[in-house]
Design brief:
Helix content of chain B: 25-40%
Shape of chain B: globular
Number of strands of chain B: 12
Largest sheet of chain A: none
Structural class of chain B: alpha/beta
Radius of gyration of chain A: 21 Å
Number of helices of chain B: 9
Number of helices of chain A: 14
Number of domains of chain A: 1
Oligomer: heterodimer
Largest interface: A-B, 21 and 30 residues
CATH topology of chain A: ABC transporter involved in vitamin B12 uptake, BtuC
Number of strands of chain A: 0
Order of helices and strands of chain A: HHHHHHHHHHHHHH
Distance between the termini of chain B: 42 Å
Helix content of chain A: over 70%
Strand content of chain A: under 5%
Radius of gyration of chain B: 19 Å
Structural class of chain A: mainly alpha
Strand content of chain B: 25-35%
Distance between the termini of chain A: 41 Å
CATH class of chain B: Alpha Beta
Number of domains of chain B: 1
CATH class of chain A: Mainly Alpha
CATH superfamily of chain B: P-loop containing nucleotide triphosphate hydrolases
Chain lengths: 347, 256
């Protein structure tokens, strides 16, 4: 920097190298997540001040209204948004790297609908076994992801073709979901918001197994994040750098499926988080997955918590499922991504 | 250094592309595989660097079958500059750092030693000025230099290059070939596939002429020229001019 006196913070950021930008972005997303958690717990139809929330938490006065609101209503929702947001964002980042396709995202290539069908099927056939939900969601997600992955391995498959196949698969699986909902209307609690994705039915109990899967998926993603960089170079380059490309790609697909499946198992078909968040972070810090993965985890958490807050407050006393808001934001963003590099980038 | 023994190869459901290949890539030399389009020269290169498994035959690196080596162990000895269509949107220095991958343990960060090797690779290809720019925004020649730097960071004795000068302007081709020659003088064994006969004859120690799935000849550029095989395989007439005892080649249309 030649002119130190007139440097603004913006200029400072421009002068940072990619590593420093990554660290800054990670710090900012962590801060944002903390703020979002606080807002998500305190704001709502009844305001709970941070002090009364903390008081309620530590005093253990289970009869106070603050305690009941926080523990039974706000906390499950914020936790659900946090888990679903980070899981879907990281799942999207992984799919974009492993398929080398910026348009990939769990909702767009049919991974969410695969998980959704499995969840509904499981809750229709084994209504008592709720601990099976994340597992079956994972298997459904894995099925869709593998179909797309095998297709992507073939030669001459363009990025758009892959997306179109995903959309076709989504509508087939979606038909299956609609069938189950009509045949077993009581199978899934909150089924009405399942198809658009929402968090109003989330309870701490429904989160406990999914949370285990998501934590496992995030840990796996953190282990594999540097390999994602190598995989994104293309299979020939990755292989000549000494990577077992088939194994690593499979592990990455598996991780993406665990994450997206677990999120779908309690939040329904939340869309576009896996598209919006990783691209927003990339715009800030570039393509280094070393930072992209953790920053997407926190960014996704903050994003979904805030979106859920907005969808709770915007039309109070009514609330809209957060999935609707996400689709309103994500749809145009998806179109923007398609248009941005129309000039043959995706062929 | 590297020996190909009785290599045969066919893509599934197709007639054999390589019939019976026996060749040697000598140590610390520049060996170029030449041949018409579709003769299988890129395939042969991929077989030699373990990207494709031959239908029969084996590849020996210092006498050891390459398929008995561990993937990382192999990548510590052989690097490949493949043809890339989708340049990544990452800074040059990050790309070069990926070259250290086969030398790192799992999840390990770059050591000071790694960083020295990366900086050395970047300065060797003269990419210092654009080391922080995204690879996707570079010119063709700069991009090729970045990829060569990645191969250098891999710190292997052998570098394979798959058509390193394709799509480049003529003066950039010479720059890249001069760089490759410089690497060879630093002790690297170079094996490459080229399209350009002039560049191949000017820069190679050894030329392997491939046609119809077989090696028609392996020899020095002089021997290849004298054999007259270039005329037959590429359907051209070769003219050689001398200026200050330097040979120059011109390939004219074959007369019917």
């Amino acid at each position: 920097m030649q002119n130190g006196q007139t440097a603004t913070p913006i200029l400072l950021i421009c002068c940072m190298n990619s590593r420093q930008k990554g660290q800054l972005a990670l710090f900012c997303t962590i801060l944002l997540t903390a703020v979002a958690i606080l807002l998500g717990i305190c704001l709502g139809s009844t305001q709970v001040s941070p002090s009364s929330f903390l008081q309620a938490l530590f005093s253990g006065d289970v009869t106070s209204s603050a305690y009941r609101i926080v523990i039974h209503s706000r906390l499950p929702r914020v936790l659900g948004a946090l888990l679903a947001g980070s899981a879907l964002a990281v799942s999207g980042a992984i799919l974009q790297a492993v398929l080398q396709n910026p348009l990939a995202s769990p909702n767009i290539i049919g991974v969410n609908t695969g998980a959704g069908l499995a969840v509904l099927l499981c809750s229709a056939l084994f209504p008592a076994l709720d601990y099976l939900l994340p597992l079956s969601a994972f298997l459904g997600a894995l099925f869709s992801a593998m179909v797309i992955f095998v297709l992507a391995m073939g030669n001459g498959v363009s990025k758009i073709t892959l997306v179109l196949t995903g959309i076709a698969m989504s509508s087939i699986l979606g038909a299956g979901m609609n069938c189950i909902m009509i045949l077993y209307p009581d199978a899934y609690i909150g089924a009405s918001t399942f198809l658009v994705g929402g968090l109003s039915a989330v309870t701490l109990k429904s989160l406990r197994f999914a949370a285990l899967y998501i934590i496992m998926g995030l840990v796996l993603a953190m282990f594999l994040r540097r390999d994602m960089n190598i995989v994104s170079l293309g299979s020939q380059s990755a292989q000549s750098l000494g990577m077992n490309v088939i194994l690593v790609r499979f592990l990455l697909i598996l991780t993406a499926a665990i994450l997206a499946g677990a999120a779908v198992s309690f939040a329904g078909l939340l869309g576009f988080v896996g598209l919006i968040v990783p691209h927003a972070i990339r715009f800030l810090i570039g393509n280094d997955n070393g930072f992209l993965v953790p920053a997407s985890a926190f960014g996704g958490a903050a994003f979904v918590i805030l979106c859920d807050l907005i969808s709770r407050l915007a039309f109070a006393p009514y609330e809209i499922p957060v999935g609707i808001l996400l689709s309103l934001l994500g749809g145009p963003f998806f179109i923007y991504l398609i248009i941005r590099n129309r000039s043959g980038h995706y062929d | 250094m590297i020996e190909l023994e009785h290599i045969q190869f066919a893509y599934p459901g197709q007639s054999p592309l390589l019939k019976e290949i026996n060749a040697v890539f000598p140590q610390k030399q520049i060996t170029t595989i030449l041949g018409p389009n579709g003769c299988g020269k890129s395939t042969l290169l991929k077989i030699a660097c373990r990207l494709l498994k031959p239908s029969a035959g084996r590849v020996l690196l210092r006498g050891q079958d390459i398929y008995t080596m561990k993937t990382k162990q192999f990548a510590q000895q052989i690097s490949l500059l493949s043809q890339t269509n989708h340049p990544p949107e990452i800074p040059v220095e990050d790309l070069v750092a990926y070259g250290r991958y086969p030398h790192q343990n799992y999840g390990q960060k770059l050591t000071a030693q790694d960083r020295i090797i990366i900086d050395h690779a970047i300065s060797l290809v003269k990419a210092d000025n654009y080391r922080q720019r995204p690879v996707s925004q570079l010119s063709g020649g700069q991009r090729q230099r970045a990829y060569i730097a990645m191969a250098l960071a891999q710190d292997t004795d052998v570098i394979f290059l798959d058509e390193p000068t394709t799509y480049l302007d003529i003066h950039i081709r010479f720059e890249i070939m001069d760089l490759i020659r410089h690497l060879n003088q630093q002790g690297k064994t170079i094996i490459m596939v080229l399209h350009d006969l002039n560049l191949a004859l000017e820069y190679s120690h050894q030329i392997i002429l491939l046609d119809r799935g077989e090696i028609q000849m392996q020899g020095t550029p002089q021997q290849v020229l004298q054999s007259g095989l270039l005329d037959r395989i590429f359907h051209v007439r070769t003219h050689i001019f001398y200026e200050d005892n330097q040979p120059f080649y011109h390939f004219a249309k074959e007369q019917l």
